[in-house]
Amino acid sequence: MIRALVLVFSVSLIGAAIYFGQGMVLPACSNGEKVLFEVPEGDNLSQASRRLKKQGLIKDILGFKILAKITGNSVIRLGEYELSCAQTPLAILQILNKGVSVVRTITFPEGINVYEMAEQLEASGLGEKKKFLELAFDKSFIKKLLGEEKYSLEGYLFPETYGMTKYDGEEKLINLMVQKFFSAYEELIEKYGTSSMPVKLNRHEQVILASIVEKETGEPSERPIIASVFYNRMKKNMRLQTDPTILYGILDQTKVLKNNITKKDIQTKTRYNTYRISGLPHGPIANPGAKALEAVLNPASTEYLYFVSRNDGTHVFSQTYKQHQNAVRKFQLDKSMREGRSWRDRYQKNSN
Predict the structure, then answer these.
(1) What Å distances lie between residue 183 and 108, 162, 178, 186, 207, CA to CA?
(2) pLDDT (average), residues 135-156
(3) What pLDDT shows up at residue 7?
(4) Which one of 20, 55, 69, 306 counts the least CB within 10 Å of its CB?
């Protein structure tokens, strides 16, 4: 009788060992697609194990926890992971322990402003608009990143494609963007210096002018010419009179982005409206890319003082006000020169 009980007990132990062994070694399925699995802040191994079992990613909770203990993978990290039931429990544990989160990309185009960046970030699910803007205007944070006090980080958030995880956060992203700005800027300074600038500007002034150049044209070949126009106007103590500064002045005051300018907008004085103030505006009006920064450091040599849109993404440049007025009459006041034409047409053709 005792031998029989021992035999039954032994068989039970062997069965349990096999069961747990399979749960610790074998995948939950043989062929499974990758699915997203999140470990939120404060989650522990027990909580994660239950959800892994519920999602069919592991066979046995207890076996999984024992495996974590004996392999030294008991600590799981905050993150969003791509897992499959075809992976072994050990492979899943190692991913969660190392924190190998899913990396998503977000692309900020050249000329985007800080408010638009915040909107885009929130829409992507990778951050919060409110938190992003709070950091972008946080005085101590700005001083830490730039080494000087500025109104905001506008102009220093380099437009580029960034890879980040869902839990990286706004501060990490902003740090990356500012580092990228300095990397691009220092590379240009090393290449061009500042000797080619017709008017001597400090770094912040260079960024302000580059942001204006970026907003005035999407045509790469025109950027050095646009920069030369503004330098020529500054040398003559002429107001810059650039429309994008009007729009940013309104945005600065109302936090609402307008696309069209009225006569009243032109006449309304803000610290950005270069029709109403002399010199450069209060700060950058967008985040310029490398080519706009390059245009400011190495502008074309021209005598142009004016430019007007051809309505296709390019401009007519003029040396005199009379020439400029003729160009305005032709390309802006003549409706036939505007109807059915868009700067988008030019770039759509070039991309085909």
Answers:
(1) 17, 15, 9, 5, 14
(2) 97
(3) 43
(4) 69
Mean pLDDT, the chain, integer: 90
Least confident of 27-36, 162-171, 177-186, 240-249: 27-36
Q: What are the residue ranges of helices labelled H in 239-289? A: 243-254, 263-267
CB 168, CB 131: distance < 8 Å = no
Measured on CA atoms in the order 215, 317, 263, 344, is the torsion positive or negative?
A: negative
Amino acid identity, position 115: Y
- What's the Cα-to-Cα distance from 141 to each of 118, 151, 165, 171, 284, rounded to whole Å? 17, 11, 22, 9, 18
The answer to whether 155 and 293 have CB atoms below 8 angstroms apart is: no
Output DSSP code: residue 220. Answer: G
Cα–Cα distance for residue pair 121/166, rounded to 1 Å: 11
Per-residue pLDDT at 284 exceeds 60: yes
- In the block, which residue shows the tokens 């926890």? 65
Question: Which pair of tokens denotes residue 200?
Answer: 């001597």
Domains of the chain as residue ranges with CATH: 25-98 (3.30.1490.480), 104-189 (no CATH), 307-352 (no CATH)
Residue 78 and residue 58 in contact, taking contact as beta carbons nearer than 8 Å: no
User: How far apart, in whole angstroms, are the C-alpha atoms of residue 190 and residue 185?
Assistant: 9
Low-confidence winner among 172-176, 222-226, 271-275, 347-351 (lowest mean pLDDT): 347-351
In single-letter form, the type of residue at position 341 comes to R
CA distance 70 to 47: 19
Q: How confident is the model at residue 345 (pLDDT cuts 50, 70, 90)?
A: very low
Evaluate whether 300 touches 291 at the Cβ level (below 8 Å): no
Q: Which residues, 6 or more positions from 285, have their beta carbon under 8 angstroms from its beta carbon? A: 113, 154, 208, 211, 212, 215, 244, 245, 247, 248, 272
| Distance, CA of 35 to CA of 30 (rounded, Å) | 15
Entry pTM: 0.85
* Mean pLDDT to the nearest integer, 295-315: 94
